[in-house]
Amino acid sequence: MTVKKQDNLIEVMNLKKYFTKKSGLWGQNESHVKAVDDVSFSIKRGETLGLVGESGCGKSTTGRTLMKLYEPTAGQILFDGVDIAPFKEKEMMPYRKRMQMVFQDPYASLNSRMTIADIIGEAIDTHHIAKGTEKNEIIHGLLERVGLMKDHASRYPHEFSGGQRQRIGIARALAVQPEFVICDEPISALDVSIQAQVVNMLEDLQEEMGLTYLFIAHDLSMVKHISNRIGVMYLGKMVEIGESDELYANPAHPYTKALLSAIPIPDPIKAKTQSRILLEGDVPSPLNPPSGCRFRTRCGYCMKVCAEIEPPVTDLGNGHQVACHLYNQ
Amino acid sequence: MSQEKLLEVRNLKTSFFTHLGEVQSVRDVSFDLYKGEVLGVVGESGSGKSVTCSSVMHLLSEPGKIKEGTVLFKGDDLVKKSEKEMRRIQGNEISMIFQDPMSALNPVYTIGNQMMEVIRTHKKINHKEAEKLAIEMLRLVGIPSPEERIHNYPHEFSGGMRQRAMIAMALSCDPELLIADEPTTALDVTIQAQILDLMKDIRERLNTSIIFITHDLGVIAQLCTRVIVMYGGMIMEEGTVEELFHSPQNPYTMGLLNSVPNPDSVTKERLEPIPGSPPDLLHPPKGCPFCKRCPYAMNKCLEELPAVYTLSPTQKSRCHMLHPEAPAHPAFQKGGKN
After folding, report:
1. Taking Cα atoms as reference points, which of B148, B142, B152, B146 lies closest to residue B133?
2. The organism sits in which domain of life (chain A) (predicted)?
3. How far is the alpha carbon of A88 from chain B, nearest alpha carbon, in Å?
4. Which of A217, B226, B234, B247 is the 20 to 30 Å CA partner of A297?
5. Which helix (H) or strand (E) holds B199?
6. Contact of A99 with A178, CB cutoff 8 Å
7. Is B235 exposed, middle or buried (0-12, 13-18, 19+ CB in 10 A)?
């Protein structure tokens, strides 16, 4: 397939993913959990897009739907200009090679009965990339690239620490030389001193291999560090997206403001003067989200219009977009 | 904050006797806790911070054992107490909040039931009064309509509310000491901010002393007055939050502070991680536990465990760089030996 290289590697348009919940005696009452509801964004080649939000906001579902681990309910996913949303498993195969994923839990995401060489080599076999000694060389090269040793290949996952396992997870994702890697909370299970090691490695790999990342996380200071742009999600909606420095310096959406003010600053003197916007209560159930703006139940600026009309996306310039009635005048 | 000591831990050594051998999780830990203060305990997984607190509480699971040391709580040695005597203290004078509220609560009993069980074990009051107290405690921690919520099961609560219920339960007998073992690690930042505010409020209102275990330096800066930094089963540095964040005197503390991104920086500075991984406490190193990862390591560090140097009335650090004869370095000040 010869496709002209697009500027945007990923373009997501009006993506929806609903999970059906059946209740009642014969399951006749259907309700939908709108995990991802009408989300659009794009990722430029070589860029890192961070995706943040509270648990249950749909950030992981967005990542998994992008990978087609979940079948999207509606919308388009353009990968290098081709809409992969309607593709069946067989048509997806060449694209699977180009997009890979690193998972959150390095203990659950590695098969404990397989050696490291088998874990990393599985994708190489599936995509018929190499065989025999050539394959072994690729595996050894990958292990060294992620800071492990050649003779680790014959060992099993339980012999490694959490940080080392996450390195193995990253080596596995890179085995097929992908262009796009989704990192779904890759560092949240690791210790502080190890987190920095993994983040630095991800940055080095991006530079060397020209990777494009979707970095999903809830640690906002780390997301700011690694991302070029950041999207903020709330209850299945993208409420704000923009350049990371711009978003942190001038957050527009009340939810982004609250989220940023909740980051505990690692400095006792600044912590005393830090003004916090405390959000009351919890995220409402996605089974029955509030009408209009979904954030209105916890928002300090809630107006009458917020309950009636869903806020449209307003462009504040320089790619900074926000979905809030405050900016819709 | 008064200077009266509530808890004095001296030379505590706790090991786990596994089939592979003795894992020395806590190796000679000594610290004090004053009345009304919030003491932060930081360290990575396996540094011994949770085991230290479980030792204080007599909550060590098999094959863990306190080998040596004393834990003086209001002058009484807790190590020598029998299980029966300890039960009068657990939940009454010292209580604990755990990391994961879902697994700490019993799913088949209502919140009220579980709270009343704690209250009635320690207080001679009837069912009605216990229920009233439970409702009051839930109101104190900010759970809306506690009269109805008390009849709910844990699964009907959200993560943040479960942690609030745990805190209410822990506080229901007016403990003098509250041990919080990573109570906000499993929560979202917005909920974490709520819980931290609640804990600050509780400390001010009830004057409860709190030991707060965490690996998040931001949380420490928000809440604590003094901090202990643990590594490889030992206390590496101890001091007030200001001292530790602004003039750390131990390479491990410095490394920890450098490995978190500065939220205010506009330019993308590269993070400075601590290379390598923590020591295996099955075979603890002879010298300094941090020497394999330390940028200042000398030959002496491999051979000999550094002494603890007192740098100010509140700050102490365990590092050979603080020895009067060690090579001078701008990052370290020289101090007297303890």
Report:
1. B146
2. Bacteria
3. 36
4. A217
5. helix B189-206
6. yes
7. buried
* Cβ–Cβ below 8 Å for B220 and A279: no
Q: Which of B319, B250, B257 is nearest to B288 (CA)?
A: B319
Taking an 8 Å cut-off on Cβ atoms, the answer to whether B271 and A271 are in contact is no
Catalogue all structural domains in chain A, each as residue range(s) with its CATH number.
8-98+178-251 (3.40.50.300)
3-state secondary structure (DSSP) of residue A151: helix
Q: Where are the domains of chain B?
A: 1-93+177-195+207-261+270-286, 100-174
The interface predicted TM-score of the complex, written ipTM, equals 0.81
Instruction: State the pTM of this model.
Output: 0.86
Contact B287, B301 (CB under 8 A): yes
Task: Give tens-digit pLDDT for A28-52.
Answer: 788 888 899 999 999 999 999 999 9
Nearest to B256 among A162, A192, A271 (CB): A192
SS3 label, residue B114: helix
Contact B274 A196 (CB under 8 A): yes
Residues from chain B contacting residue A161 (CB–CB below 8 Å): 277
Which one of A192, A258, A266 has the shortest CB-CB distance to B44?
Answer: A192
| Architecture of the domain spanning B1-93+177-195+207-261+270-286 | 3-Layer(aba) Sandwich (3.40)
pLDDT digits (tens, 9 = 90+) for A128-145: 999 899 999 999 999 999
B270, A282: Cβ pair inside 8 Å? no
Higher pLDDT, residue B95 or A4: B95
Residue numbers in A near B37 (CB within 8 A): none
